[in-house]
Amino acid sequence: MNLRDLLFIALFAVGVSVITLVTSSGVWLTFIMMSLYAALLSQAWNILGGYAGQLSFGHALFFGVGAYTQAVAQLSGGINPWVGLVMAIVAGVIVALVVGALTFRYGLKGSYFALVTLAFAEVFRILALSATFTGGGVGLMVPLRGSIANMQFASRHGYIFLLLAFVVAALLVTAWLRHSRTGAYMQAVRDNEDAARAVGVNPFQVKLKAIALSAAFMSVAGAFYVQVFQYIDPGIAFGPAVSVEALVGAIVGGVGTLWGPILGAVVLHLLSDVTRNMFGEIPGISMVIYGTVLVLIVMFMPRGVAGSGVSIKRLFGRGGRGNG
Question: How many Å separate Cα 110 from the centre of its chain?
């Protein structure tokens, strides 16, 4: 693993920790927590969509599996939340391997793979609505038992440090993918699957590894969500909102990069809060402005915020050549 990446990840962890410790404002602590939460979702999506090139519209599938595994383990099995977290990861990875085996085996990719993942998320949402152990449409409420042993904290500080540990783990895995043989195989499959196969890469196995890693972190995010908000229902778990937040954060920040999902998550939440605070009194206008800015970012920064320097240089370069 590249020492420069490790250094910047360490600086990121220290910086967030210091800011968290010196901040007492509930508003800013919530902003930090939700930005880290969005970063975890985006980084998870980035492993599959950015590095392996398999665009998913239904990543809420793995989030929901992790969330419900965490909730059911506590409520029905009396299992400690930390053990439930491990179970959530295992359950998410198993579902990912099944979905991957069914889709990658038959060569589904691009828009076909994206639609299949969306369909799987919808199927699981319907199943969760019908099943009794999931609470049906009412959902499940996890009791508040504030202690570190129960993965519940008295203030936002504890949740931020827990979430920071998850994000740092995701960054370490992504940094490893940037410089490892596995990551090189993923990028080869992303760029040209047929060429990768011709030089001895097994695209099926590579994509299975990518979806398993991606699902593991999505499941962690789902388990974390249950512990923070103590509630989950089929709409939250398997609905489109989680999938959209994951992919938009990665796209805005820069797919296939180490820091893009982090930057994208911060930009999205900062933009959302600013537009809501400035124009919230006019119904719908904040969402219009929010959506317009997102469209402009995608149009003029196709490499995302992380690649904004290159995008701006190319934009002005084209303008200069046109004027000449």
Answer: 19
